Amino acid sequence: MFTVLEFHNISSRGICWTNMPAKRFADVLDLLQAKTHIVAPTDLERYLNSQDDSERPHVMLSFDDGYEEIYTTAYPMMRERGLAGMVSTVAGYVGKRNLWDIMGGGLDHLGWHQLEELLAAGWSICSHTMTHPDLKRCTDDRLAWELEQSKQILEKRLGLEIPAVAYPFGRFNSRVLRAAQKTGYRIGFTVGAEVWKGVRGPLTTIRVPVYQIDSDPLIRAKVAPDGFHKRLDAFKNRFFNRLSLLTSFADRHRFKGIPQQF
Ligand SMILES: [Zn+2]
User: Fold this and answer.
1) What is the pLDDT of residues 64-76, one digit of tens each?
2) 187, 202 Cβ separation under 8 angstroms
3) 248 or 146: which carries more pLDDT confidence?
4) How far is the CA of 220 from the centre of ligand 1 (A)?
5) Domain for residue 189, yes or no?
6) How far apart are CA 74 and CA 84, in angstroms?
7) In the chain, how many domains are there?
8) How many CB atoms are located within 10 Å of the residue 14 CB?
């Protein structure tokens, strides 16, 4: 069983449910190290393409949106334990203040030097588009720009291939998948809330969110094969995912054309 877990910011600032205070994050890492095998993000494709039937669950840690506290807080904690993770990077906002998230407004995103240092330490980076829109609502031009421009900027600036994209809010449809494939992405990350679409493959790889309110037994259920608690968790995650879409509704006016400021 291989599960990609999705954290957001590791921080005590703000009250948003997607923040996880450092102390709770340490407890979650303790739990995961005791009960699972945490794989290096650079091994992602190997795990996605192989059938993992070992008894101990395998997990990969990912961090959505790429906030600066991933570098200042999560990175030292994980380095101490010999762990690395993957950051979904909103390419148009590297080193800039968050203006696109009504819940996370005011936070700074990771800068280029921080991303380079994470990469040197064995972390990986995937595209999280240019401006974090709901891709399903974008025009064809905007969709292509969000996918292509973010891949190009990250590859050029960081000097490596970016094979994966995380769809903002996990939202995709067949048009988004076709565009991602055409852009050259081999992996696409969604969230459990979107699994009902029944599409399976590397371009619809599910990330399972971990929230600060999640109990230890619930976190164990997230990485276990199917079961009652896992389904309960998926239901709750779907609710939170829909709440996060408020950001997308607030952003509606920015979907129409390609923004000039990037
Ligand atoms: Zn995001």
Assistant:
1) 999 999 999 999 9
2) yes
3) 146
4) 24
5) yes
6) 10
7) 1
8) 14
Residues in Cβ contact with 156 at an 8 Å cutoff, skipping those fewer than 6 apart: none
Categorize the per-residue pLDDT at 258 as very low, low, confident or very high, splitting at 50, 70 and 90.
Answer: confident
- What is the pTM for the complete model shown? 0.92
- Distance from the alpha carbon of residue 212 to the mean position of ligand 1, in angstroms: 17
Say how far apart CA 70 and CA 103 lie, in whole Å: 17
CA 139 – ligand 1 centroid, Å: 19
Q: Say how many Å lie between the CA of residue 203 and the centre of ligand 1.
A: 17
Surface-to-core class of residue 244, CB atoms within 10 Å of its CB (0-12 exposed, 13-18 middle, 19+ buried):
buried
Alpha-carbon distance of 161 to 155, in angstroms, equals: 6
Q: Is residue 261 part of a domain?
A: no
Q: Which domain holds residue 11?
A: 2-255
Q: Give me the CATH number covering residue 96.
A: 3.20.20.370
Please give the distance, rounded to the nearest whole angstrom, from the Cα atom of residue 134 to the centre of ligand 1. Answer: 10
55 C-alpha to ligand 1 centroid (Å): 31
The verdict on residue 260 lying in a domain is: no
Q: Is residue 237, in this structure, part of any structural domain at all? A: yes
